[in-house]
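Researcher: Let's try something more involved. This one mixes different molecule types, so please make sure each is placed in the same coordinate frame as the others.
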Amino acid sequence: MASLQLHRVVKRYGTTAVVHGIDLEVKDGEFVVFVGPSGCGKSTLLRMIAGLESVTEGDLLIDGTRVNDVSAAQRGLAMVFQSYALYPHMTVYQNLAFGLENLGAPRAEVDAKVKAAAKLLKLEALLERRPTQLSGGQRQRVAIGRAIVRDPTIFLFDEPLSNLDAELRVQMRAEITALHKRLGTTMIYVTHDQVEAMTMAHRIAVLRSGNVEQFGTPLELYNRPVNRFVAGFIGSPQMNFLNARIVGASDAGLRVLLDAAPTGESQPPLPIDGSAKTQQRVMLGIRPEHVAIGPTSGPALALTATIERVEQLGAASFLYCALGGGERLTVHAPGQVAFESGTQIKVSLPVAETHVFDTDESENAFRRR
Amino acid sequence: MASLAGMLTARRGRGAFDWTDWFSYGYLALGLLLMFGPVVWLVLSSFKSAAALNEFPPQLLPYGQKTVVVTGHEIPLPLYRVTLPDGTTRELAEVRRIGIQATLVDPKAPEQEYKVNIRDRKPVREFQLALNNYIEIFGKFSFGTFLWNSVFITVVATLITLLFNAMAAFALSKYRFGGRNAVFLLIISTLMIPPTIILVPNFLVVSELGLLNSLWGVIWPAVATPTGVFLLRQYMLTIPDELIEAARMDNASEWRIFWRIILPLSAPALAVLAIFSVMWRWNDFLWPLIVLSRTEKFTLQLALNAFQGELTTQWHYLLAMTVITLLPVTLVFAFLQRHITTGIAAAGVK
Amino acid sequence: MNALDPPMRALQRVLGVPRIAWMFVGPNLAILGLFTFLPIVINFYFAFTGGVQLYPSERPFTGTENLSTLFDCGSYLDPATCRKDLFWRSIYNTGEFALLQVALMVALALVTALVLNRKILGRGFFRGVFFYPVLLSPVVVALIWKWVLQREGVLNAVLASAGSSPVGWLSDANWAFFWCVFVSIWAHMGFYTLILLAGLQAIPADLYEAAEMDGTSPWRRFSRITLPLLMPNLIVVLVLGLIRAVQIFDEVFVLTGGGPGSATTFIVQFIYQTGFAESIHQYGLAAAASLVLALSLLVLTLVQLRITRKNLDSPAGRGDG
Ligand SMILES: Nc1ncnc2c1ncn2[C@@H]1O[C@H](COP(=O)(O)OP(=O)(O)O)[C@@H](O)[C@H]1O
Ligand SMILES: [Mg+2]
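Model: All components are placed in one shared frame. Result:
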């Protein structure tokens, strides 16, 4: 078990920087997920932590000790690769034992640890098979087992579930979470799938182009995204972004006028601090599940929308609507609805659930009260 | 029946069996005769006795004189077809011969002796393999030593070649180190330096190292083959880097990664190189000819060359030695033809 | 090899990970340095020194004397007027041999490849038949043919049964030269056939089908589709064949010993004899002759590189690794 700190960590390949000075602190026993779109530098960051890539600048500390120059083997971490990287010419047993043998562990101890890991991961019946004779899920388990036998201080996972089918992914997600509960070891998990991030993490670091945009618990990210990028990345379906401009700021809050709103109607102020200039263009964000059909009890912005498509999932329904000016609005309604496409409906956006963002994706959002 | 006929006349296109088909099969038949004929002839000849080899025109198959065991005689007697003075012909065994007169007996009734002129008797011949050719070369010419020298050079040089070339290929395919491209170019460039143009200086180097008349003098200069490095490197490039990284996380040293991960996974390419190397070293001639001048250090190829150069060539032994020399390569070929031909097509070398 | 692990681990700690690569290329580079690169340098030294000593410091510097000895000729067109007439004979022989052998061999290899590329019965078997001699050692090849060609050999027996008198195949200068060409084609053709066959099989079948649909005649299909598309392979085969033919030694040395007279003495045999086989070892002269050989190979190699351009993709080169 160990904690991890990154201080202004930079990675450059030649002259192109792919990680731009990241500060991060992972607490002992924590489950941290790095999430971000493909190519944002998640793997690079993880591989620097693992010791597979050198750190160009900055410091990497494990339990307070600088490990920039310590080799991968000696950092005492274990990694599960996206392709699993099982040794194809070795049996499952040999795959699990290889790391321990490299440490010169006595045969009996190797055997005991391998057997224990196999039991934990229900691999006992497969020990004599080769990786090619295993299913995707079984390979995944062997890859995790190979990490477990070494008693690492930190587990590193690089998109470990991306090669599995949807059902297995859900199952393995639960298994990894359970494993973390059981072992209590620090885990760092990389994924591009925000659902995985939300369901598994204690804290999530959202990465974009080599920068950490936000680092916080799943609900912090969900409720208080620091910018439009994070807001759009977390949550499915994506948060709605509507063009608007600021028409006034007062103690009551920020007043905005949606481009799609019928002119002349007075709109309630939003519970958001606004020191901004009036007429500044902004984007109003609201999650699909917060959009109400018809009027609501609290203060809300009212809009008229035309339903273009309806998806009925049974337990919930998604309405994909068009607003004036070519803007789109997704509505997540609980239960089943009786609307047909083409219908015009009135929707309300409760002001308590609204976010206001700069038009620039990475500029900080307006602070919610 | 129809399908068999179809198979026998398999040809390109759907039209009639045209002249190109006749040409093709004619060409192949001629090719078969020319390519295999001499080898078959050599093998058949190697089973003939010295006397049979001296016959002209030669017989196709190895024949020897038939012998019979006759009571009262310790060794088997040669059998002849004899025309007796009364005009009858009988098969008799020759007991002795003095001048032009031979004394023969009937194997079934050995009491009565017949004396005939040697012109009236013809040897009775039967199909007979002169296996003695093969047996005697081991005793007479320390052929075993030559065989051992060849086997030693071939096996040891191949093992070292595999090890050294695989190590270099590993470095060139899996590490990014300063000078990597330069090293690769340097190794590949030696393809353009055939050994024939550096015979004299290489002789100096080998003699300064004290390796003249040592089998190692043949082995060491041969073990760093650019072909092998190239072949293995191409193969190792297809091994995923993640396996190496996983092994690094698994605390394996770089040497252990090479030995336990890279080498086993490169087995198919190593097998191809091993086949090549065995053929190269087994067949080597000019360099061993220069380095090994003492008879007890001769390889098979050198021994064959020395024997065929003697004034009176003992062909019955020489042929048997030649067959033994071509045997391993032939076996390798028979079992691994596919690997060899695809390997050669892939690498563009032999 | 597990015993090697601890020292290697220690070495890795000293060198660090990317630099440990030098340990892996080290043995190979050392061998190449010792037995290829160093000899190239020494060869120049030998070429410009004289005497009969092998050790370089005991060899007197003689400048270009070796070269001028080799090139001392009344007329370069007539080897008999040269001081080293054997050198010039071997050069003429080699040139004649290389051109004849390569031209015939490539033509035959092409025909063979075309035949083997057809839908014929037992294709794999016949490919093996043509390829088999490639694997035989040159000494064995020479002995096989020597046995066939000797005065009481099977070829003369066949002639005799046809009523003709025996021929001294290897004791007549012209016949001996012919058989050197023949035997080396016999031994090496399979290799070139294989390369050409690979080239033929890389030509997409639909090109032929399209041509057949258009009613193109077989000859035109060959000359307009096959030949142009096979040209790169043909050129590789030609140049490679020349590079190897110029270095002919083993088979011929055993088959004819360079004779009768000097009828089948080629340049490598001249080097071998001058440097190693004669009672006085004229290393300097042999090294100078090596330089001449190296120069001609360099020209051929440059031609090859220039034509193929993809110099690193196919290490087609010498025959022994
Ligand atoms: N060895 C390398 N050399 C140059 N650029 C690289 C290298 N490895 C990764 N990159 C670049 O770094 C960026 C981040 O890559 P990566 O960390 O793999 O992204 P991901 O978040 O998808 O895992 C990408 O743009 C990639 O092209
Ligand atoms: Mg990645």
